[in-house]
Amino acid sequence: MFTFEFSISVNRQQQEVFDFVSNPANDAQWQSSNISNELTSEGSVGVGSTMRSVDKLLGRKVESTTEVTVWDPPNQYAIKSIGGPFPFEITMTLESKEEGTQLTASGQAEFGGFFKLVEGLVGKQ
Description:
125 residues, alpha+beta, 3 helices
């Protein structure tokens, strides 16, 4: 299992940062691997909302479905995969600072299934 955590300071108000990172339509603007992300459930984003995303990893398009597991504006937002080649969970925690907002992203992913998929694709070439 792969785990990660990183933080970044953003010179914006906490609510503004939360609104941006929790909006699936913005993902391609701040996630370099993201090609598209769309809300697939009805209503506004909240716990239980689902999204379909397309990312480019190792030169291949990878589709996944995620579900919002934590919705605590403007403090925390979390998602987990519920469909796709590898399971993952990501939590974004926001904290107001004097100079703006500190965004900390942490998560984990299990790449076993993903690398089996890549191995299968490479073997077909």
